[in-house]
Write a sequence for this structure.
């Protein structure tokens, strides 16, 4: 039923819409709405702005705060916490601390080296 509406009704509705749009477009801009005017502007003092934006130095309070909490947990506890927070991958494991072996002194004497040199290089 909708598609077979009378052509006269359709035209009337379209005509009204067009007229309304034209009327809206034609309306003159209201006088006194110029945005580029100085009226109502508050002049800001540059010095006040600077003081407002000046960085505040928190060093003193921060130092006091840092120095206040000097409680250090004992080694066993910190180790345990670290162990719990560590991942299970091999890259997350700390390297094993191996005791360094003392360099062993050679069992050969200077005389032995000289003898070997003579035998090897053929220098009498």
């Amino acid at each position: 039923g909708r598609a077979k509406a009378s052509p006269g009704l359709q035209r009337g509705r379209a005509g009204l819409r067009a007229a309304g749009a034209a009327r809206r477009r034609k309306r003159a801009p209201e006088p006194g709405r110029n945005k580029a005017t100085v009226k109502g502007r508050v002049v800001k003092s540059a010095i006040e702005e600077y003081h407002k934006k000046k960085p505040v130095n928190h060093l003193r309070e921060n130092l006091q705060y840092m120095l206040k909490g000097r409680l250090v947990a004992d080694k066993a506890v910190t180790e345990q916490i670290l162990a719990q927070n560590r991942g299970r991958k091999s890259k997350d494991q700390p390297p094993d601390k191996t005791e360094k072996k003392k360099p062993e002194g050679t069992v050969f004497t200077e005389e032995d080296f000289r003898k070997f040199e003579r035998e090897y290089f053929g220098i009498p």
In short: The mean pLDDT is 75.
